[in-house]
Each structure stands twice: as structure tokens, then as C-alpha cells.
């Protein structure tokens, strides 16, 4: 296994998902919360397994006999794209609901210091996945948007203030 050092960074959320999440946030903000009801926040956790190296799969498997340089380049690109897509190990998106600020902060701390990544390796890097990839090294990418955390923290902090005020 190979994993990046420091805080794990994964691919950004696709534009469509971001716009949908933005719409959901706008809807949540427009509804006036009942001050007696305990508020929660949702944090999106993205976990993705990837091969560390693709060179061995591409080397010797991408070629073209086309005479025209542009056609040759296009054909090689399409072959490489097909090979890389076939090596996609997939990803999992988890929406985690927090109702306590201390739990949210602990989750964020674990994400930043890398202990969340280490814990998730045991869950996602299974024996069946190891068997499927054979001798190739894989890495796990874990991503949580800081904006999600900050917005959730503000919401839970307001919630805490409402419930502790005399």
C-alpha cells in the first residue's frame, strides 16, 4: 500500500454534485429552525481507492498504426483512456450527520492529522480488494471539504448557544 503523507486530499466533488449540495444548503437556510429542536449538520466524506502506478498497465498496451499524427494521437489517447477506466477501483460517498460539536471537531481533527485515513484503510482495503489488484500497490484517498466542516461547525455552535443560554 502507498498513501500520501500529511492530510489526505482527494479529487474535488464534481460540479453537478456541488450545485446540488448548494441548492440543498439554500433550502436548509431558508427554513427557520425551531429553537427547541436540536439541529444537525451533514458532512460529506469521500473515500476512493486508486492504483499507485499506471505505467505498467499502459506500457506496451497503447499503440497505433495510423499514418496521420493527429489520428495516431487520438487513437492512443482513446486506448489509454479505456485502460485507465477499466482500472477504476471506485469510490464511496458517505453523508455523516453530526448533532454534537465535540464529535464534529474530533472527526475533523482525525481527518487533518491522518488518523481517519489510517482507520479507514482497515475498512476499505479488504482482502478481496487486495486479491483483485494482485501485486500492485493501491492508495486510499479521503476527502472532506473544509467548507462543509466550517458551515456545520457554525450551525452546531449556534445550536449549542441556543441550548445553553439562560
TrEMBL record:
Keywords: Apoptosis
GO cellular component term of the entry, any: nucleolus
Superkingdom per UniProt: Eukaryota
Molecular function (Gene Ontology), one example: DNA binding
Chain intervals for the UniProt region annotation (Disordered): 1-39
Listed Pro residues bias regions: 1-11
Record carries keyword Kinase: no
Gene Ontology BP, a term: extrinsic apoptotic signaling pathway via death domain receptors
Pfam families according to UniProt: TRADD-like_N
Keyword Methyltransferase among UniProt keywords: no
Boundaries of every TRADD-like N-terminal domain copy: 68-128
Coiled coil: none
PANTHER family, per the entry: DEATH EFFECTOR DOMAIN-CONTAINING PROTEIN
Name this polypeptide is given: DEDD protein
Lineage, opening ranks: Eukaryota, Metazoa, Chordata, Craniata, Vertebrata
Recorded name of the encoding gene: Dedd
Amino acid at each position: 500500500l502507498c498513501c500520501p503523507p500529511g492530510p489526505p486530499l482527494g479529487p474535488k466533488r464534481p460540479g453537478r454534485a456541488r450545485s446540488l449540495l448548494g441548492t440543498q444548503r439554500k433550502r436548509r437556510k431558508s427554513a427557520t429552525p425551531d429553537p427547541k429542536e436540536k439541529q444537525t449538520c451533514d458532512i460529506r466524506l469521500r473515500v476512493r481507492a486508486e492504483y499507485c502506478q499506471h505505467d505498467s498497465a499502459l506500457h506496451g498496451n497503447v499503440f497505433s498504426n495510423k499514418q496521420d499524427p493527429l489520428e495516431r494521437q487520438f487513437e492512443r489517447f482513446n486506448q489509454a483512456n479505456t485502460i485507465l477506466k477499466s482500472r477504476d477501483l471506485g469510490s464511496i460517498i458517505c453523508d455523516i450527520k453530526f448533532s454534537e460539536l465535540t464529535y464534529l471537531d474530533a472527526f475533523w481533527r482525525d481527518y487533518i492529522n491522518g488518523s481517519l485515513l489510517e482507520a479507514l484503510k482497515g475498512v476499505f482495503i479488504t482482502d478481496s480488494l487486495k486479491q483483485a489488484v494482485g501485486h500492485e500497490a493501491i492508495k486510499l484517498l479521503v476527502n472532506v471539504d473544509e467548507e462543509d466542516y466550517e458551515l456545520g461547525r457554525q450551525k452546531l455552535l449556534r445550536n449549542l448557544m441556543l441550548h445553553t443560554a439562560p
